[in-house]
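Why predict the complex rather than its parts? Because the way molecules touch one another can change local conformation, and only a joint prediction can capture that. The input here totals 601 residues.
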Amino acid sequence: MQYLNALTAILPVVVLLGTAVILLMLEVFSLGKDRIWAANFSLVGLAVAFYFAMKGLGAEPQALFAGPGKSAPIIADAFGNLAAAVMLAGAFVAVLLSPEYIKNARCSSGEYYALILFSVVGMIVMAMAGDLITFFLGLEVMSIGVYVLTGIRRNDLRASEAALKYLLMGAFATGFLLMGIAFIYGATGTVALPELARQMVAPVGGAPILVTGLVLLLVGVAFKVAAVPFHLWAPDVYEGAPTPITGFMAVGVKAAAFVALVRIVAVGFANSEESAVVIPFISVIAYLTIIVGNLLAIVQRNVKRMLAYSSVSHAGYALIGVVALARGEESAGAAVLFYLTAYTFMTLGAFGVLVFLERKEGGAESERFGAFAGMGYRHPALGVAMSVFMVALAGMPPTGGFFGKLYIFSSAINAGEMGLVFAGILGSIISVYYYLRVIVSFYMVDVPDAGPLPTATRSRHLTAGLIIATAGVLTLGIFPNQWIELGKLAFKSLQLG
Amino acid sequence: MAEPTVPIVWYLILSVALFSIGGLGVLVRRNAIVVFMCVELMLNAANLAFISFARLHGDMSGHIYVFLVMAVAAAEVSVGLAIIIAVFRTRSTINVDELTDMSG
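Output of the joint prediction:
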């Protein structure tokens, strides 16, 4: 009975698991060739889970599934629920982008939607994890699903290559992460976040073991969010994966890892001198990620790869928020959440436009900048949408991307991290070049090597996905206050729980 | 305690050594299956560290974590081998250096 009550506190997870399992069972009967019903069914599941996550915002923080005398592995609080809502919205848009792509790429779609749902379950577990082992389990549930999704077009050369690279690098990162957790456990005798904060003061074997553990943990997370110098897999994997999945992992995996990192830093390592030693380490990664990510994005010819490097650099901006948070600046928690929300909509929107434009024969050719020449005139609405996403990614008003950066930078200034703010602004200026380049090719008519123009497609799902993404980006840009206040409230729940 | 037992530090040294061998193997070896085995070595090094630290603290939770890690590693292996087979079917090689369809 006690467990039944606990399950009602994590209804989003229960609903998603139920939907995914039913989907897999229905798939056995293969109801029709056109599997649009599977997309619709998962959309319903995601929407219901989203409703329960938003409902959970008002609830008291609950510590769930705790053994006698042990701390809870799952903490259902406003922070976890708000993060879950963001990831569910991202998955919702990613599913909307999928039917069109699956039809064009003719990939097996049976398990596709179920795998997306299972991955989201992993993400929510990460966001609600009360100890490092639960965080690890959530991370793996998410990652294994995404490995398979990356390679789901298994006869495609680029897709299988991407899947193998992602798997090997992901598993390598898992090794570091796990060793880090083992060392932290060794130094403090616990993996539970609230306990960690108490045990941190006098670690077993002194600080070195603890610091080694923290650094290994951070390396593992840095791999997952594709921070420089652990980003080498990202461009290949992003290019080879199915485009909706690229969007899904660019936003979902990154959001989940950052949300978990915020919880770990805020609850487990708050104001401890031992953990302050690793702040310079995070700062260096943030510097490198912003500068290298932006510089490499400039030289890309393939828009999908450019977006991959852009996503690398965005991880750098979010890391600025994490550094500020580690310095004890509390507004950074809400800033990171806001940034991830804005990033979710603008990135998924950009990948959605790519899905729209990709030609039936697919391949890298249809993703070149030149292939988009004149698209702004042939499809005015699409041109406007892409312009909104690019402007948002570059961090210009009146979009969510602008306020995301504003909140991150102002929290970093409060924390006294002027150098990082400077690097962030510099990076944003560099990024304007390659984001505007997309807009330029959209509205540039005469291109000598344009080749055959992409055939745009008509799909109600895809259109709905793009509309949601555009609305999300603009709403966050015009009414940022509501969302940041919600984020602040959610972050408070973190410290109460 | 009549007989002297092996000090816990030795287990930790073994664990770190295994972890390093695994990590180096991932970077040096070119056969995807061998790379994957090296990753497994890293995970098991972490398991050994968990067990020894659990012993050090007299805390049984560390042993439970190892079971969780084993389950995760098994799931990862099944997906991993499937992906390696998919790569072999499309290219007839699993040498990671020959996976160069994308670059830039």
